Automatic annotation (TrEMBL):
Gene3D superfamilies: Aspartate Aminotransferase, domain 1, Type I PLP-dependent aspartate aminotransferase-like (Major domain). Its cofactor is pyridoxal 5'-phosphate. InterPro entries: Aminotrans_3, Aminotrans_3_PPA_site, PyrdxlP-dep_Trfase, PyrdxlP-dep_Trfase_major, PyrdxlP-dep_Trfase_small. CDD domains: OAT_like. It comes from the Bacteria. Pfam families: Aminotran_3 (PF00202). GO terms for molecular function: pyridoxal phosphate binding; transaminase activity. This is Glutamate-1-semialdehyde 2,1-aminomutase. It comes from Evansella caseinilytica. Belongs to the class-III pyridoxal-phosphate-dependent aminotransferase family. The lineage of its organism: Bacteria, Bacillati, Bacillota, Bacilli, Bacillales. Keywords: Pyridoxal phosphate.
Length: 463
């Protein structure tokens, strides 16, 4: 079915966001492209925000939006939740400082709470981001197995460093055969690191994945996977079960990257849904309550590679030949286990224990209603996702992996997103929706009204 666009949204967007444009021009004098992270940019220029509360966010032009980006899923309780603010205030009042640089009780208390939901994390370490967490997980797997290479899945994102910055959104013409994907670099500057290129696996295609893993078994330290790709395309249960069995047989560490899915697709993440225990798990986003954090956890034998010993620290001075530093996997960070962040994260988890089930029901209702509006207006829309995350894809076919997603009508989705921005519905164009406990009936009603307006007024069937 052809769709006719009878109103281009960019003129209205430009008129509504003039101050955002001016702010981005100023920022470009100091920041490359005017942004502090590439993910914050979109064409022609991003909206610059100045304040937020609950499910709402306001830009520098005074426009208000219902926020479905939620800092890429980090804000599971919405903006400025009272529980998190109170937890931070209490921590500072009790401890008298935001940072010790020493062990403190919140480190193990928070770990105890995490382990209750992720029992596969027999021991864990804190980092300052999800990227750092996956980087440490790979180093742990390499040290434990004694092998040097990793495998990742096409379309999966694990951070912005050399080993994994391949085949995230590769052009299909460059990506190779579906069952034998090529490692396509996603950044300049990777040319010098060709020996670190990962083996690329086809998601949700078991026979090809099995063949590639057996072919490279002797060199693979780990397979890292988003068990729900991008937070919204779930692995098939049999696929995950087979992957767990084969990696164990081949002595390849299995890493679940649950930075997006932790406390999102279920309180216990994707591993709770699938009933599968990976060797290593990475968490981030939600567990920081809106502050920077990452967690790596897994089998005690693997995590204990980083256990300190006497004379075993890279910073030990004057130890000479007695230093055991090379025998230990080095991991450190001034802000690891930051007390204020752990207090905020613990507050977020406590609130989710009360409200998560309701938020899942809200998300499921929203997904069904968006799909119904698509059918009503002759627009092919699927709201694909699990738990409190989903994405809207313009297709009538099933989405199983990256290549299916690339065959959907991405231009139509982008047009819908810009029209929705003009109606006060915010997410970065083409991005997923993350629902928070702050989204309620009013937000749902306003969102569906905006969708109805956009689909009826802006798009129509072409005769």
């Amino acid at each position: 079915m052809a769709i006719q666009n009878i109103e281009h949204p960019m003129m209205k967007y430009s008129n509504r966001t003039k101050n955002s444009y001016r702010e981005m021009e100023k920022a470009a004098n100091y920041l490359p492209g005017g942004v502090t992270a590439n993910i914050k940019h979109f064409s022609p220029y991003p909206v610059v925000m100045e304040s937020a509360g609950g499910a709402w966010i306001k830009d520098v032009d005074g426009n208000q939006y219902i926020d479905y980006l939620m800092a890429y899923g980090s804000l599971a309780l919405g903006h400025g939740h009272d529980d998190i603010k109170q937890a931070m205030a209490d921590q500072l009042a009790k401890d008298g400082t935001v940072l010790f640089g020493t062990p403190h009780p919140l480190e193990y208390r928070f770990a105890e709470k995490i382990q209750a939901y992720y029992p596969s994390m027999e021991r864990l370490r804190y980092t300052n981001s999800g990227t750092e967490a996956t980087l440490l997980a790979i180093r742990l797997a390499t040290a434990y197995t004694g092998k040097k290479r990793i495998a990742k899945f096409e379309g999966h994102y694990h951070g912005g460093y050399n080993e994994v910055l391949y085949s995230i959104n590769p052009p299909l013409v460059a990506a190779g055969e579906m069952d034998d994907p090529r490692p396509v670099p996603e950044s300049s500057g990777l040319e010098m690191f060709t020996d670190q290129r990962p083996v690329i696996l086809p998601f949700n295609r078991w026979q090809a994945t099995e063949r590639l893993l057996r072919q490279h078994a002797d060199e693979l330290a780990a397979v890292i996977i988003e068990p729900v790709q991008g937070g919204f395309i779930p692995a098939e249960k049999q696929f995950i079960e087979d992957l767990r069995k084969l990696t164990a047989t081949l002595q390849i560490a299995l890493i679940f990257d649950e930075v997006k899915t932790g406390f999102r697709v279920a309180m216990g993440g994707a591993q709770e849904l699938y009933g599968v225990k990976p060797d290593l798990t990475t968490l981030g986003k939600v567990v920081g309550g809106g502050f920077p954090i990452g967690i790596v956890g897994g089998k005690e034998a693997i995590l204990n590679r980083s256990r300190p010993k006497g004379n075993g620290d890279v910073f030990d001075v004057g130890q000479g030949k007695s230093s055991a530093a090379r025998e230990i996997l080095f991991h450190s960070g001034t802000y690891n286990g930051h007390p204020t962040i752990l207090a905020a994260g613990l507050a977020a988890i406590h609130r989710l224990e009360q409200d998560f089930a309701h938020t899942v029901l809200y998300t499921e209702t929203m997904r069904k209603d968006i799909e119904a509006l698509g059918r009503k207006n002759g627009i092919p829309l699927k709201a694909v996702g699990v738990g409190t995350i989903f994405n809207v894809v313009c297709t009538e076919t099933t989405i199983r992996h990256y290549r299916d997603l690339q065959k959907t009508d991405l231009e139509l989705r982008k047009q819908i997103d810009f029209h929705l921005l003009n109606e006060g519905i915010y997410t970065k164009p083409l991005n997923r929706y993350s629902i928070s406990t702050a989204h309620g009936e009013r937000e749902l009603e306003l969102t569906l009204t905006a969708y109805e307006t956009v689909l009826k007024r802006v798009f129509k069937k072409k005769n």
